[in-house]
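A quick aside before the break. I want you to see a complete sequence-to-structure record at least once, exactly as it would be stored in a machine-readable document. Don't worry about memorizing anything.
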Amino acid sequence: MRPATSRRTLWLQKIADQVAHTLSDRIAGGDLKPGASPGTREALAAEFVTSTSVIDRALEQMTDKGVLTQRADGSHVVAQAPAREHGFELPAHETLADVVSILEMRLGLESVGAGFAAERHDAAHLGAIRAAADAYEAAATQGEGAGQADFRFHRSIAEASGNPYLLDLLDYLGPLLIPRMRVSLPGKRGDAAAARHAIDEHRAIVRAIEAREPDTARGAMRNHLSRTLEMVKRV
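That is the input. The structure line, written in tokens, reads:
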């Protein structure tokens, strides 16, 4: 009998597929020309908020398709434009409706997840959430890397929720959310007040989780994402 593929393996492959799709779009659109590097493993992992092993999978499948060529030193360069493929992905040029729809989905799921995190977290989870909140505050204050830091904060709460499907969903959406939703993040246009609001909202979520107050945690997360949703609608 053929051994079953683990759910985790399937999700990681889906993330790799999405990274490959995004890089292929850049090549097809002319942003990356033949001979250009798609980026180092480390840089791509940071951009897409995933592991270097997932990036390796994406680069390998693009190499297998002849889109990339691997050099003797292990680095990759663009070989040719990819053939068009269709899969689950946001459009290359998203509309406001696309961004709003993603936020509406997160509003429901992550509010519930925050409540579960308040009920179920352990010391390690709480430490990770606090560290992620600190990292976001530093990034938002400096005006660099806030998108990735924000995603890691929300991911740490999903992990603390104890629901593996919520965590998998955020992991899969990571490559979709971060490149396309930087436009919606507080502080994108140097708005210090908006960045401060987001930092304070994160802190309110952390306090509710620390206090093991599920209703308060759900409300704090809903308030945070609702304000972001309203801000995006005004773009």
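Two observations worth writing down. The CA atoms of residues 208 and 217 lie 5 Å apart. Residues 182-189 have pLDDT under 50 and may be disordered. We'll return to this after the break.
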